[in-house]
Amino acid sequence: MSLDVSPELLAQAEHGPVDEADFVATVRDSLPYAYKTVEALAARLPHTDDPFVDDNTPPTDTERGQLLRALASNAIRGSLERHFDVTLAFVNCHNVAAFRPGSEHDAAYREFTSVRTQLLNQKPELRNC
Fold it and tell me: What is the pLDDT of residues 106-122, one digit of tens each?
């Protein structure tokens, strides 16, 4: 299970649309490492002229699990991107990058998410991540 969903939020989902702010709060509380990582990247991005900022810090297994759950879910990832006004990219189960929205066609984004970059980021210690 990816998220610890309150009975109230579950009831809201059972009866119709869910308030995205409530969903993001659930993500924040359920996946704190993933949330804080994206939050920190989003805070750094406006202060650089670089096309993106990333966090390549090797997380613990628990933290890595949070990143995987957050970024592998379209709903969670999309909500975090809208909440923080960034476009996220993810390489090798731990390297998370925040790009400015709309940069999916830029060279830096294409390179970060390329097959080449994925292959160059392989490490034996991350074999089972």
Answer: 999 999 888 888 787 76
